[in-house]
Amino acid sequence: MSEADEPFGIAEVSASIGLAPDTLRYFERQGVVPSPRRDSAGRRQYTTADVELIRMLVHLRETGMPLADIAQFTGADDKVADPARLRVELLTAHRRRVHERREELDRALDVITRKIADFSDRITSSEDLLDRPDCTIAFGVQGEGPLLFLVGAPAGRAGFAALAQELAGRFTVVTHDPRGIGASRAVPGMAAPTPEVLAEDLAALVDRFTGGPALFVGTSGGAVTLLELGKQHPDVVGRAVLHEPPLVSLLDDADLTGRAAAAFKAAEADPQRAVQEFFDLSGAAHHTGPHQTPPAHMALPELPVEELDKNRYFLGRMAGPTVFYVPDIEAIRRVPVTLCAGSLSHHQMARRATQALAELLELPLIDMPGNHLGASAEPTEFAHVLELLLEA
Q: What region, left, alpha or beta, does residue 143 occupy, with left being phi > 0 and alpha being psi -120 to 50 degrees?
């Protein structure tokens, strides 16, 4: 008998796999794994094939496969006529569940990362205020070097906190909460947060620091704000990196346009429904490579009251003017801009729109780490590429 054929006792299998002997016995009693052979004294004798089967069990169980499915997969359920076909079906269904769970964990991780960065930002960056005729804009500054503004809509200081920290070693980084967002709370009589109004707010903030050109990075709606800033105040734009401006206006897609308009219209009365519809049509929280498409629908959990209130404002007032904004192509040609999109945003609304803008401007579209949320979800990798683009 070769060494590979030597049987293993339960203690050896337990130590090798990391499952307690009692757990192995439990799985055996539950019919999850077939019972091993026993020696003349009644002791379990595991073969190498048994051990590999149990290793697979551990992987499947760690990823959440139900015990009943595992029992069928391992062959403990020997009533199946075609076990190979059944195993393929079980693994395919489980892979789908794992992908869905990974999406949920990615979203949770994004939130945790932003919160860590947000609280860290409060420690390292003091808050200041800019008075506007109809509201007050909260902003923060950190780092040393060339002046760099990170611009979002609806993302504000919290959304850029991690990225700002990554860039603060090379730049003087300014972040702000757009009107109605974060500490720049909406007030009665405040003008609607259209790209034109947001660009004027940003121009006033730039004027607070310098009378000359500066560097800008805009993500999502913030990239649209920068398109309008370049039109209104081209002299202040030293370079602007635009990441995924979600310009539905540039897509010849009546169905997408109608769905977006319906979501925005529903935001005041039913923000949960509006968030779900916009989530589905944008695909922005998913990770999709060149040969992947985002799922048509993935049910979101019920949002807390504060998130519903935020989306009444964002989807009900800010998002519509942003995604239906029509850029002045000739004006943009006079401003040094770089267009980029997430390497994992393929076939999503914002990347499609950015590709359309790149074609109109005859500019390349540069891949960035992550998806539409790459600036907050992968700040270190995102910052590294940004530094190269800003210094080009």
A: left
Q: Which residue, among 163, 348, 373, has the nearest Cα to 247 in the 3D structure?
A: 348
Alpha-carbon distance 321 to 243, whole Å? 18
At residue 192's C-alpha, the angle toward residues 191 and 195, to 5°, is 115
SS3 assignment, position 68: helix
Residue 5 has pLDDT above 70, yes or no: no
Cβ neighbours of residue 247 under 8 Å, at least 6 residues apart?
A: 224, 323, 325, 327, 353, 354, 356, 357
Q: Using the CB atoms, write b or e for 354-363: b if 16+ within 10 Å.
A: bbbbbeeeee
Main-chain dihedrals φ then ψ at residue 288, nearest 5 degrees:
-130, 125
Mean pLDDT of 197-225: 96
pTM value surpassing 0.70: yes
Q: d(Cα 128, Cα 110) in Å, to the nearest integer?
A: 26
Query: Which residue reads 């790149």 in tokens?
Result: 358
Print burial letters for 149-167: b (CB count within 10 Å at least 16), e (below 16): bbbbbbbbbbbbbbbbbbb
d(C-alpha 234, C-alpha 55), whole Å: 62
- Name the more confident of 68 and 123: 68
Calculate ∠ Cα 364-366-368, nearest 5°: 170
Phi and psi at 238, nearest 5°, equal: -75, -45
Amino acid at 22: D
